[in-house]
Specification:
76 residues, alpha+beta, elongated, binds zinc ion
Length: 76
């Protein structure tokens, strides 16, 4: 019976860590590759979008272009 609790705790911990990671990214600004405008996105958008390094497949709210670069807060 013990392993079920351990498994549940591990899954819950992994889920929380994933949610915290995504919410951290959601604080950052994103810059559109097409129109170079900066915008922020909902963390749920990040969760369901593909990304490669700091490039995200997120639709720009200004021009509708899909593809933007994450801008780190440290560089701002
Ligand atoms: Zn754009």
């Amino acid at each position: 019976m013990g392993w079920i609790i351990v498994t549940a705790v591990v899954i819950a911990a992994a889920f929380i860590l994933c949610a915290l990671y995504v919410k951290q990214i959601a604080k950052h600004n994103f810059r559109c590759k097409e129109c170079s405008k900066e915008f922020t996105v909902n963390w749920r958008t990040i969760l369901f979008s593909q990304h490669y390094e700091n490039e995200y497949e997120i639709k720009c709210p200004h021009c509708g272009h899909k593809g933007c670069t994450e801008i780190s807060e440290k560089n701002a």
